[in-house]
Amino acid sequence: MTVRHQSARDLSRTTYDYSGFATIDGRHPWQTEVPGSHVLYRARQRKNGKIAWFNFDLAKEMGLLSFDHPHVINPQLEAQVLETFAIQIINEYDLINGVKIPQNEIKPYHYMATRYLQLQHPGKTGITSGDGRSLWNGVWRGNGKTWDITSCGTGATCLSPATHIFKKFFQTGDPSVSYGCGYSDLDDGVTGAIFSEIMHKNGTPTERILCVIEFPGNLSINVRAGTNLLRPSHFFNHLKQGNLQRLRAAVDFFINREIENGDWKPLTKGENRYKRLLAQISNTFGEMAARFENEYIFCWLAWDGDNVLANGGIIDYGSIRQFGLYHHEYKFDDVERWSTSLPEQRAQARYIVQTFAQIEHFLNTGKKIEINRFRNHPEVRRFDLTFTQARRRMLLEKTGFSKHEAEMLLAKRSRQVTHFERLFRWWERKTKQKQHYRVADGITKDALYSMRDILRELPAHLSTTWKLMPTKTFMTHIASTYCGSNDARPTLVRRIWSERFQHSYMDLIESCAKLTESHRENLVGRMAARSAITNRSDRITGDAICNVGDRLIKVRKKLERKDLFDVIANFINDQVRVPEVKIKGVVRSTIPQKKLSGKPETILKALGRVVYEMRHGL
């Protein structure tokens, strides 16, 4: 479909209502309902900003923009967005040093930096840790939902690790510290915006970027939104401190928001709200951990519950990677500690559930007992079951079965599924090196085989002939860019394991055909179509998104803003890997799929080549 894009000049003649932005002014119910859980700051207007990227999809979903608003930034919209979000806190350094700020630049209400537990912070109880360079802009209620809105890069707060390591308050922008300076880099904003939208459109719960505001010096403010942006660490600090009153207030706030937004079913009469919380957390984190491992999403889960949302969503894309292969030996070097690896995230998610079991007991009895007592709590054991079942279901879906077919196989042919999973993991876990080696930001061993590639090619092969793929052909498809000639050789051992894998795969197809009363040929054809979408070779990785972000920042001044937005929109939509969406030919977006030409088309193709070249990387 061809869509005419209104120019900024045309749009400026049309009147749209942007008054909703003005109500996002720092006020947030957390400030009054959970006292002592935050630090309040006045803020000032920050000058010389301009919109580098705007999420029209999200703004319309939130009700901040009308559905018929064209995907063009006009002067009125830009002015209102900058008025609302281009701000900087007046911090302790400013007050101590008597920095002069014109009164007309100071915002009328206080903004908050929230306190929460943080692994990298010197204090381990959450009294002095939390939002180090972010603030909460407030809440927005629209289209039946309440949204939290926060911004990163708005100034140095007293809750950053730097403040307590060096025992002093920092001036915002101080070049002697990085994280503690309070600013955010433009490349972080652009990559976070693109990556989070890709994750969202592929069904992974996540915070989303509403807009990226650019400032001189390649700095930015990255405005983030979500229906509930509280992290487990927002509760764990009160638990560590043994503050029952604040813990109850924080947990009640979270529960009420989930119910009001319709994300939880209403509590039934007499139902214990804290037991409901624990049950929801157990299920949510079981599914989340399974998704991370199945999709090769590195999130650095840890005991503090800082790097994820309490509703199971991703937050803070500075530490998020998506691997092209099962690089299960990769660990990030954070100077003072190593991160968790991909498979270790399961244990950390389990420990978070265990901590919520401790919270539930504390809230219901008023007694805080040792966390080890909850290691085998029924809900913690249910997490284990949820994780195992979810990981197998997701594997079957990645293989090409529909969700209904996957659930039927799990229920009726569980032994076959377990056998197939064991054979799948044998190939998936093979690495090239015996010892770890250094990479730019950590250590790793290279995974060897691309399971997505073989899952894409195998059903296509079986749709033409119901015979095993020859081992030489099998190895050609499964060998990744990390493989040398010896790694891809069809040895006797590899022939045995490739044939076992294929026999198990074909047995599952036969079983599914019988269970669903389908013709095998039709089932294989559907699986080939689904798998071709789910396992496309040009799937974004962490390395690729960083490279894409760098390239977009370099070329942005050579493009008109609407052309840049079109390039980003097309790039994001091209990364959708949901068969139900792609097969129907509809991407979950109100952004028109505009056919590009000229320089935008050239840039988009170049970005596609980057993704393909880095498809197997970190």
Number of strands: 15
Main beta sheet strand tally, sense and closure: 6 strands, antiparallel
Number of helical elements: 23
Radius of gyration, CA atoms, in whole angstroms: 25 Å
Quick check: average pLDDT? Answer: 92
Terminal CA distance: 36 Å
Beta content: 5-15%
Helicity level, as a percent range? 40-55%
Class computed from helices, strands and strand pairing: alpha+beta
Number of domains: 4
Low-pLDDT sequence parts: 1-6, 584-592
* CA-based shape: globular
Q: How would you describe this structure in keywords?
A:
618 residues, six-stranded antiparallel sheet, 4 domains, 23 helices, alpha+beta, three-stranded antiparallel sheet, single chain, 11% strand
What does the model show?
The chain is α+β, with helices and mostly antiparallel strands and 618 residues long. The protein folds into four domains: 219 residues, no CATH class; 157 residues, no CATH class; 135 residues, no CATH class; 72 residues, no CATH class. The chain contains 23 helices and 15 strands. The longest helix has 24 residues.
